[in-house]
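Example record

One chain of 266 residues, shown exactly as stored in the release files.
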Amino acid sequence: MATLVCFHAHPDDESISTGGLMALAADAGHRVVLVTATRGELGEVVPGVLDDGEQLGLRRCAELWASAEALGVDRVEVLGYVDSGMMGEASNDAPWCFWQADVDAAAHRLAAILDEERPEVFTIYDDHGGYGHPDHIQVHRVGLRAAELAGVDGVFQSTMNRDHLRRLLEMRRDFDIPVPDGVSAMGVPEELPPDMGSPESIITHLVDARPVASRKRASMRCHPSQMSEDHFMLAMDDFAFEAAMGWEWYIGADTGDALGGIITAR
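Predicted structure tokens for this chain:
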């Protein structure tokens, strides 16, 4: 059996980006380790979820552990950096936030975990963080350096497939499905931001997460501070959810089929 380590920026990122991979790996008997850089203190809170005086960072940590249990994760670690907020916000300039962290220092923290676990597969984000979030970009930078320090070769960069997103938009139009303004039935923005995802031509690997789609959605439901039941990713029907969230995409090392074929070369 192998070991999988997934490095994410905030609680709930694990559900959306690599939830299928983690559930499939756990089901196959592999060891699964989840690391987040921050507690997600600056997330946009669903109204009425927090109790009076409750700190969002603590709530999101509790949600992270619940999500990890739903996915079958064996170990959860939080590096302890502070959420940087969205790109361009004043919070990006706080010297204690993850975006401002010294890459080498943060990488040494993460490398200590990699040294203990010796993963065959280690996931981070692509070089623009999927959609330009500063903490996601920093996960890419810190993750690459940590892998170098720990001598981990099987690095896979989680990304979104821009061409697949466009195909989902076309499906929505073909079926003429009514949805809220600006969002397609598959959860794809009507106009893709220029920094969202990667072209299919540079994506090397994929995960078919459709067999564990219900587990992936269950892990997303463990984050009610960020996703209410009427959130489009939770409210869409099973067909739409599998189309939008049932595939996970990676730019990875040429290692063939990783984790016994869970991650397959395109």
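Notes: The chain is about 40% helix and 15% strand.
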